Amino acid sequence: MSHTITNHLFTLAQAGTAVAADPEIDYEKLGPLLQVLYKAGLTGVVEFFHVTLGFGAQEAGLAEICFATFLAFGLTGIIAALYKATFKGSKLSQDYVHTLMILGIVVTVIVMVVRGGDAAKSQATAFGMFAAFSIIRFRTTLSEARDIGFIFLAMAAGLAVGARQYGMAVATTIVICAIIYYFSRGDWFAPNKASHYLRIRVTNDINYDVAFADVFAKFLAQFDLISVESIQAGMMTELRFNISMKPEHKPGELVTAIQQINGNNRVLLTATAPNRTLGTD
Fold first, then answer.
1. pLDDT digit string, tens, across residues 103-155
2. Which region, left, alpha or beta, applies to residue 116 given φ > 0 means left and ψ of -120 to 50 means alpha?
3. What is the 3-state secondary structure (H, E, C) of the chain?
4. Rounded to whole angstroms, how far apart are CA atoms 208 and 32?
5. Residue range 226-261, pLDDT digits in tens
6. Does residue 281 surpass a pLDDT of 70?
7. Where does the pLDDT of residue 178 fall: very low under 50, low under 70, confident under 90, or very high at 90 and above?
8. What gap in Å lies between CA 34 and CA 40, rounded to an integer?
9. CA–CA separation, 95 vs 105, rounded Å?
10. What's the pLDDT band for 208 if we cut at 50, 70, 90?
11. Would strands 236-245 and 220-231 be described as parallel, antiparallel, or unpaired?
């Protein structure tokens, strides 16, 4: 019985040695992720990707092309989910989020076609990257500057996948998304006070130069009179201010106090930075 067990163990050891020394697996040609798995002894996983799926071939096969497409879809899906989770604007565009995902996948396909799977074709890859970036031209104006950053992030993920740098694509996407989520949730570099536009309508019998002085001193940290306009055939006057509220007061309190002075005429308070909550620091 012990002799039989010894024979089985010897056979398994020989099989493990054969896999580890598989001449079809060239360690130097493995990607960073596969090299880590190879060193960890997961030669079966390395062989599945490098040999069975043909990742080690000069040209990307059908299996690798499908893998790269789904990987690009997954990474751009993470980027799109991050964009939605950290969005602070007034209206989220579903079309823009879908565009991020489509863009990353299309860039992957473009780079794989131009590159042809040959690592030596660095010049062709460079031209492919240049072409991928040059075709991006939006006909509509982006609502926020951060939208441009997410476009480049989606393209970068697609470029890395298309260049067959799968480990780099996964690692960099996760790290960058974690950083973006961290400083977005932490509200880094936010202004100390939210600024607003204030529009007040008063009748001509109100001396607006001094009528609101006490209210402004109580509720506002700073205010500037932008314009004075005569409206309704000269029967009323509309005042426009650029203001910054004190953090301890709420917008409703300011509006109520002003209406008590202007006879419940129109008062309009608009945030100049809609990404932030009115009246917060």
1. 889 888 888 777 664 555 555 565 656 565 665 555 556 667 788 889 889 98
2. left
3. CHHHHHHHHHHHHHHHHHHHCCCCCCHHHCCHHHHHHHHCCCHHHHHHHHHHCCCCCCCCCHHHHHHHHHHHHHHHHHHHHHHHHHCCCCCCCHHHHHHHHHHHHHHHHHHHHHHCCCCCCHHHHHHHHHHHHHCCCCCCCCCCCHHHHHHHHHHHHHHHHHCCCHHHHHHHHHHHHHHHHHHHHCCCCCCCCCEEEEEEEEECCCCHHHHCHHHHHHHEEEEEEEEEEEECCCCEEEEEEEEEECCCCCHHHHHHHHHHHHCCCCEEEEECCCCCCCCCC
4. 70
5. 888 888 888 888 999 988 888 788 888 888 999 888
6. no
7. very high
8. 10
9. 16
10. confident
11. antiparallel
Do 169 and 160 form a contact (C-beta atoms < 8 A)? yes
Q: Which single residue is written with the structure tokens 């500037």?
A: 224
pLDDT value at position 177?
94
Q: For the chain, which domains are there?
A: 2-52 (no CATH), 62-185 (no CATH), 195-271 (3.30.70.380)
Structure tokens belonging to residue 62 = 């059908």
